[in-house]
Amino acid sequence: MTKKLVLITGAAGFIGHHLLDYLLQKTDWNFVLLDRLDLSGNLDRVRDIPSYEVDKGRIRFEWHDLKAPVNESLAKRLGNPHYILHLAASSHVDRSIEDPALFAMDNVVGTVNIMNFARNCSNLEKFVNFSTDEVFGPAPEGHAHKEDEPHRPSNPYSASKSGQEAFGYAFFITYGLPVVTTHTMNNFGIRQHPEKLLPKTIRSVLNGTPMPIFAKLNKKKRLEAVGSRYWINCWNTSSAVYFLLKHGKPGESYNIIGFDEFTNLEIAERIAKIIGKKLIPKFVDFHAVRPGHDRRYALDGTKLKKMGWKPEISFDKSLHDTVKWYLDPKNQHWLND
Predict the structure, then answer these.
(1) Which one of 85, 86, 279, 322 has the fewest CB atoms closer than 10 angstroms to its CB?
(2) Could you report the per-residue pLDDT of 232-280, keeping only the tens digit for each?
(3) Alpha-carbon distance 181 to 253, whole Å?
(4) Cβ(156)–Cβ(94) under 8 Å?
């Protein structure tokens, strides 16, 4: 029996390499990794996967920037995958504010190019289109967005992801492409880019330097922390994607969420407690620093939960294990800017 072939775009990125790690452990499938190895893509992540030396015979790598179409030569090298997991994207809000056109090219045009390739894959069973909670815009207190709610993107990054989703649905309707869309929330885990909250906080606490925390003026004209998010470990996200490869329905979208909501300050304080050192918060006005910053994101995970999926690892255990991994001297190079 022929083994499944999986194409992962953005496979050298943070979530992409965790998804590869998970699927290497859970399946006997073969993988083609597509990445342009820029700011977020780093093959050291793939080589750091514990089973890499054993499983590297199941992995092939192809360099490509999806702003360009997949030409005939590359298409032959990619093969005829059974699953395409499309994670390649530009994802940093601040950089999207500086260069919105780049994000439109990477996230919208790039998606169209890989979907045009996918249209010709006769073996294709699922195309998983990775989106974000941010397409829905801010969530009022007490509300969590469901999959079918309207998009209200607040910044160029979330607008580009909304466009990515729109093309995914259009390709499903027009060409019958078996697109399954996911919305994920704040993912964390090992080997994350140093600019992200967890590694940045760990570095700040270890060095005894102030940690910037977004804040707003309260009624007493004092700054207080804002920025509430639901947090999920990449292992749980990967588990949900594997579940959707089996049970997801083309044309549908699914919220992949953690069930633990914290402000950035609360996350930073938990990290400091695990390390055993003091956090030095530095409150900054979030609107002055980041126009288009949303105070709170929230997704409703009922749909996926009713289908039978649940996180494999608790938030507390995954946060503890992640911080301890970074504290190991052999892993501390992942904290460097």
Answers:
(1) 279
(2) 999 999 999 999 999 999 999 999 998 788 988 999 999 999 999 999 9
(3) 4
(4) no
Q: Which contiguous run of DSSP H or E holds residue 84?
A: strand 83-86
| Rounded Cα–Cα distance for residues 198 and 34 (Å) | 26
Please say if 337 is a catalytic residue. no
Q: What is the DSSP string of 138-168?
A: ---TT--B-TTSPP---SHHHHHHHHHHHHH
Whether the Cβ atoms of residue 217 and residue 295 lie closer than 8 Å to each other: no
- Residue of 224 and 156 predicted with greater confidence: 156
Look up residue 130 and give its DSSP letter: E
Provide the pLDDT for residue 292.
52
Determine contact, residues 20/49, Cβ cutoff 8 Å.
Answer: yes
Residues 6+ apart with CB under 8 A from 76: none
Domains and CATH numbers, the chain: 5-187+230-259 (3.40.50.720), 194-229+261-296+314-335 (3.90.25.10)
Strand 186-188 versus strand 223-225 pairing type: unpaired
28 is catalytic: no
Catalytic residue among 134, 147, 269, 294: 134
Catalytic choice (83, 157, 254, 297): 157
165 assigned to active site: no
In 227-323 the beta strands, taken as DSSP E runs, fall at: 228-233, 253-256, 260-263, 281-285
* d(C-alpha 261, C-alpha 83), whole Å: 32
